[in-house]
Amino acid sequence: MDIHPVNWDQALAKPKLRAHQLSKRYGTVTALEPVDLTVASGELLTVLGPSGSGKTTLLHIVSGLVEPSAGTIYIDGHDHTHTPVHRRDIGMVFQSYALFPHLTVEENVAFPLRMRHRSDAEVRRRVTQALEMVQLGHLAHRMPRALSGGQQQRVALARCFVYQPSIILMDEPPGALDKKLREHMQIEIKRLHRDTGVTIIYVTHDQEEALALSDRICLMNHARIEQIGTPQQIYERPATAFAADFIGISNIFHGKIAGTMLETPDGIFALPAGAPPNLGAGQAAALVVRPEHMRLGPDADCCVTGRVAEAVYAGSATRLIATMASGTELTVRLPAPSGAVEIGATAQIGWNRENSTLVLT
Q: Which domains does the chain have, with CATH numbers?
């Protein structure tokens, strides 16, 4: 099956949601710096960042749970900055599930339709469809306490999807599940998104989850947006040292520009072809190289020498940790089998310049 990349310039021309200079302050504390964000209709956008980065504040402002200090929110081209929560046509899925313990699965899913005074026939039809969509039709008459964590999470998803909101906001919904169930729920959410075409804004601090789920990622740090792009763009071409360090594992060489080279404590390295032109001499910058682009041996554009500190076998690959004379630690991902590597041995590690990214610091 051919996978065609989305033309995001076209997709964002008529957005589902647009936030313009949205900000939030609590007294002297800034929870969200002025941000601009556009979400395409039918997109699954992940808002990713560490604790305190502003991602949940952004989500709560979009939902209407928090009033912004400044800025405007447009949904389908209409100003909804001060529209009450219940009139925004936005669904929310929380980490806590928030199921009613005294209602059956079926009654929980039917609740938002009952609140909207839909007919009994429509309620039955939509609830049946929603439960089948999350593969829980056979548990319709069970109480929430009789369900596993993963099943409760799927009920919460069905309850949100059942009334077909314009936008669905998800605040780390699989956060309370173990790793295996989290990965299963990621697949479920991707399938539901694909089958329904609904616009989803998904908040998480888990980088692997963001890479697995997203059409695009909005990476946040210190209450502002650090970078927006597809998972591939953010992973392969991080715009900042923070983006490189937060998304995946990166080897980062800090130094200063010297012509077409970067001088670092670990050596002098050629800049990649895509480096910004006219960089000033002595300007602080960093070279980013992903572990899978590094290899053992001197046959490469750039090369360093280090001492092997650890080798971790992980089935399909071996993760090698090497320490440079400066104290910098490098991570090298080698395909398995790659032969035995002796701990404490000196190793030459190289990479080609086109596989590196330069970021200014």
A: 8-236 (3.40.50.300), 249-360 (2.40.50.140)
Q: Between the CA atoms of 173, 177, 178 and 184, what dihedral angle is there, to the nearest 10 degrees?
A: -60
Q: Is the peptide bond before 50 cis (omega within 30 degrees of 0)?
A: no
E-state strands within 90-222: 90-94, 167-171, 199-204, 216-221
Cα distances (angstroms) measured from residue 288 to each of 70, 158, 173, 200, 265? 36, 42, 32, 31, 15
Q: Per residue in 91-122, pLDDT tens?
A: 988 777 788 999 999 999 999 999 999 999 99
pLDDT digits (tens, 9 = 90+) for 226-280: 999 999 999 999 999 999 999 989 999 999 999 889 999 999 999 998 787 778 8
Burial 210-243, CB ≥16 within 10 A → b, else e: bbbbbbbbbbbbebebbbbbbbeebbbbbbbbbb
Report the run of H or E that residue 193 belongs to, with start and end. Answer: helix 179-196
Task: Render pLDDT for 200-221 as a digit per residue (tens, 0 to 9).
Answer: 999 998 898 999 999 999 999 9
Give the pairing type, strands 78-79 and 70-75.
Answer: antiparallel
Residue 98 amino acid letter: A
Cα atoms in the 13 Å half-sphere on the side-chain side of 19? 24
